[in-house]
Predict the structure.
Amino acid sequence: MFRSRSKEEKASTGKVTADLSKQPRDPQAPKGRPTPKRSDAQSQRRRASSGAPLDRKEAMRRQREARRADLAKQREALSNGDERYLPVRDKGPVRRFVRNYVDSRFCVAEFFLPMAVVILILSVIQVQNIQTISLLLWLVVIVLIVLDSIGIAIRLKKQLKERFPDTPKRGAVAYGLMRTLQMRRLRLPKPQVKRGERP
């Protein structure tokens, strides 16, 4: 019962262990490291199944791709006026009305850039009378822009009070005045109304 093993039995067990060590290790059971805690293993499984990135580089790459897709949608919305993907500053019925109000009329400020180019060319010419005329033109253009902007601001405030009495209108008039400074074809979002059309 308590006899020691024979030499044959010891040799056979030695052969079995030697055979096991020669066999390749099963890839499903990697060892050589401590078994992870249950909470760590569960969180890792959850992360893998939810599609969350496992490392920082992957997270940054996904974030860049999402940002690129958002910007592409935003550019498209700026050209076709799709309200869903517009930037926050352009969203909402108040901003849409302000854009349509400005786009439906002629504004002196939108012609500022072409007039400025003409005035600069006149001021370069080395003739005293022409330089005096260019200075007077600068003054006239600036006065006209200021008067036109004041008129637009007053009328726009009145229209906004009538149409949107309970909606917040903070910054809407300034938004409209900034839009008047851009040439019509360069405005973003693109104009959705024709000149003379009521918004």
Summary: The helical segments are 7-22, 38-50, 56-80, 93-103, 112-124, 128-163, 172-180.
